[in-house]
Hints:
By secondary structure, the chain is mainly α. Helix 3 crosses helix 4, helix 5 runs antiparallel to helix 7 and helix 10 (208-221) packs parallel to helix 16 (345-407). It has helices at residues 2-6, 18-37, 46-53, 57-77, 87-106, 111-124, 127-138, 144-173, 177-196, 208-221, 223-253, 258-265, 274-283, 287-307, 312-337, 345-407. It contains 16 helices and no strands.
Amino acid sequence: MTQQIIGGTATDAGLVPARRLGFVITTMAVACGLAVANLYYAQPLLNLVVESFHVSQGTATVVVTATQLGYAVGLILLLPLGDLVNNRKLTSRTMIGTAVALALAAVSPDFGLFLALSVLIGVTSVVAQILVPFAAHLAPEGSRGRLVGQVMSGLLLGILLARTVSSLVAAAWGWRSIYVISAVLMVAMSIALARILPDVPPAHTATYRRLMRSVLDLVRTEPLLRRRAFCQAMMFGGFTAFWTSIAYELIGHHHLNQAEVGIFALVGATGAAVAPIAGRLADRGHGYGGRAAAIVIGLGAMLLAAFGAGSIILLGLAGVLLDLAVQSHQAFSQREIYGLHGNARARINTVFMTTVFVGGAAATAVSGWLGDTYGWFGVMLFGAALMVMAAIVWTVEHVSAGTATSRT
């Protein structure tokens, strides 16, 4: 019974007329970017959080970890509903929940409550990951990588621009104001999604319990999914270690102010353009070499950041290379895993993104301790070690594949 829930290659491509598909995909990309940005607004504001709540830097860093762990909980508990519940209703209503959590966080009087609301913001921001497999469902087979890459570009721009926007807004109106602005945007996008997304009936009628059991079956039966998820978790761990710690480095050692930290964060946005390109390359069957190149670039970026910390230019270059590497590796990986089971893309994304964000949350927690103990250099060497672990998995997989081919 569970296998029937997982199986199938169905697609809803064609439900959206070709002339409207681009508009719908663009709207989904914007919604993804605005939703996922909520996970990252706090990163460049940690210094202000320290001052506002009178906590240590290590304690303030827990806000980022808590938000990412909340996101992981949402991936586990809410994302599978994308295969069971009408996606238009699920996404628009979840965004209203995000708006409420953001509004309460904006007026939170103490750190404990703010931390709890950060978890709730993370849980409800999972709407971004509901939309990504939904885009794959709507896309024709031949252009799936490209269209999913467009949605991923929106998502990744949200990740990258969130730091800049929150820094500039904080410099102008205080750090709490970004939570008010985002709450308003969540309500607006909820209305837009309810009006624009196609009304696609759920693919399954199974119970939620059976659906969740099928998620575990995917973990057990799909080694390719496990490998892609682990490697992306390592890549994303290095990404979060860099961007969680960079504000401390720029303010403490390069004496940048909050607005200047926001401007620095813009450099990462240049890497977002690679997602559609990586999607096109994946459509053409270049995932093998593409993932290897991404891992090598990611490792190089971490080492450049470690040994070039004295130069803001080198730190900026490292940020661009790191973002390019992480984004392209995810685009290549998602093109592969979404082809495993057409009727289980939301649950496949559950396994993939839960692994990724648990890895990111763990890396954030470790980087907070390493930053306090060993400084920026220690954090970047930790990020480099994560990239090496991804490289080991890639090497073992393809050596094994080559051995199997030679035997046949």
